[in-house]
Amino acid sequence: MPSQPPGKPRTVGELKRSGYRPRTVKEELRANLVAKLRRREEVFIGIIGYEKTVIPMVQNALLAQHDLILLGLRGQAKTRLLRTLPSLLDEWIPVLAGHPLHEDPLAPMTEAARAAVASQGDAAPIEWLHRDERYNEKLATPDVTVADLIGDIDPIKAANERLSLSDSRVMHYGIIPRTNRGIFAINELPDLNTRIQVGLLNILEERDVQIRGFPVRLPLDLLMCFTANPEDYTSRGKIITPLKDRIGSQVVTHYPPDLKSAVAITRQEAWTDRAGGAEVDLPEFIREIVEEITVEARKSEFVDQASGVSARMSIAALEALTSNAEKRALFTGERDATARICDVYATLPALTGKVELVYEGEQQGVVAVGKRLIGAGIKKVFARSFPAAYPTKNPKGKRRPGQPEPESPPPEDDSPYQEIIRWFAKGNVVDIHDTMATAAYAQELERVPGLGKLAMDHMKVESKNHEPIAMELLLEGLYQNSLIAKEELDHGVVYKDILKTLFESIEA
Question: How far apart are CA 280 and CA 217, in angstroms?
Answer without folding.
Answer: 59
